[in-house]
Each structure stands twice: as structure tokens, then as C-alpha cells.
Design a protein that fits this description.
208 residues; 69% helix; globular
């Protein structure tokens, strides 16, 4: 599937989902803690703008070409997992910049950091989750690759989300909806990056 309508449809789905979620949204003073990840990531992105000179090098070029293929700009012979390039294509479609994607890697980076914070908060306390989130963002590997047009940090986020769902499904085995969402999440993981080796860890977890 390719063509400008696919990116437009993706933008529509995202907007519809946000509108649906915001119906039951309520802000509390304690929710300020979720601003830590966006503030730190935007500060790092402003101070160390890696994407300015890396989008046409290494694997980033492959993901950018895959994103352009969604919009029928060109045909790229090498297969890449389509989910993240699909998100890149939405930004290209909206901003008409075929050379650099700026917002999508940052938003995926923030989403992954929120998964770390959410999971850590469920297992420990708010203070420890903030420390875990800050430590995760400042890891040199995460900080470097998270700002580029790559899938490594995004796949980390979706795996953490799948882990969270797996824990919830174990505690609530009667809720089939959680198991369904877990299956969809794991399926989307392999559309994010070719991470088949991670199946070994998942199978090991299920065996334990």
C-alpha cells in the first residue's frame, strides 16, 4: 500500500484516537511529572541536533527512502519494517520536507521514555520512575539513536508496552481483551523492526 492517501489516513487515525482518548482526560497537579521526558528530550535535541547531518547516511537513509516510497516519491528495492517509515511519511506529507524528519523521531523518543516511566512507576514509586526515565534518556546510545530517523528506540518502547500488557494479562487471565491487545502489540513490534531474535526472550518469559 502506498500513495499520499495512506499517510493522510494514518494522520486521520491518530487524530481520531487522540480525540477519543481526550474525552475522559483530566489533569491533576501530579501529572506534571509526565513533562520530564518531553522537556529533557527537547533540551537535548536543541543542544545536540544529530539529525541535521545524519539523515542521508547509514540506515537512516534506508528508512527515509522507505518513507518516501509510501508517498510514491521513489521505489526503494530493500525491504524495511514499515511501521516507523510510515510515521515518517506522515511528517513528510504534512511538512513537504523530503530530506529531514524532525518531529517524528522526537515524538517516538518521548513515547518510549513514557513507557519506561510508566512501567517503573508501576513496579516502584514515582521518584524512582523519574530517575529511571532520566537515566534512560541520558544513556549515550539512547540519546544518540533516539533523535535520528531510526527504529531502535521506537522498538524498545513497543517492547516495553508489550511487557506491560503481558504482566497485566497474567494478573487478569479472564480479560481476553488484554490478551488480544497484547497479540496486536507484539505483531506491531515486528512491523517496527526485524527483531525476530527477541522471540527467544519472549518464549523464555512464557516458559518461566
Amino acid at each position: 500500500l502506498n500513495g499520499w492517501w495512506t499517510s493522510l489516513f494514518g494522520v486521520f487515525i491518530i487524530c481520531f484516537s487522540l480525540a477519543f482518548i481526550s474525552q475522559n482526560f483530566s489533569f491533576k497537579y501530579s501529572d506534571i511529572r509526565w513533562l520530564l521526558a518531553p522537556l529533557v528530550i527537547f533540551l537535548i535535541a536543541w543542544y545536540v541536533p544529530w539529525w541535521d547531518y545524519h539523515h542521508q547516511r547509514f540506515d537512516t537513509a534506508a528508512y527515509m527512502f522507505s518513507a518516501l516510497e509510501f508517498l510514491n516519491y521513489r521505489e526503494y528495492p530493500s525491504f524495511r519494517s514499515p511501521l516507523v517509515p510510515g510515521f515518517f511519511s506522515m511528517e513528510i506529507f504534512l511538512l513537504r520536507n523530503t530530506y529531514i524528519v524532525f518531529w517524528t523521531p522526537i515524538l517516538l523518543f518521548i513515547g518510549t521514555a513514557w513507557q519506561v516511566q510508566h512501567l517503573a512507576e508501576r513496579w516502584s514509586s514515582t521518584q524512582i520512575s523519574l530517575l529511571c526515565t532520566l537515566s534512560f534518556i541520558l544513556l549515550p546510545t539512547i540519546r544518540y539513536w533516539g533523535q535520528m530517523a531510526m527504529t531502535d528506540v521506537a522498538v524498545c518502547g513497543i517492547w516495553l508496552f508489550s511487557l506491560h500488557l503481558l504482566l497485566k494479562s497474567e494478573k487478569n487471565p479472564e480479560k481476553k481483551s488484554i490478551a488480544l491487545i497484547l497479540g496486536i502489540s507484539i505483531g506491531l513490534t515486528f512491523m517496527t523492526k526485524q527483531t525476530y531474535i527477541y522471540l527467544l526472550g519472549l518464549v523464555g518469559w512464557l516458559i518461566i
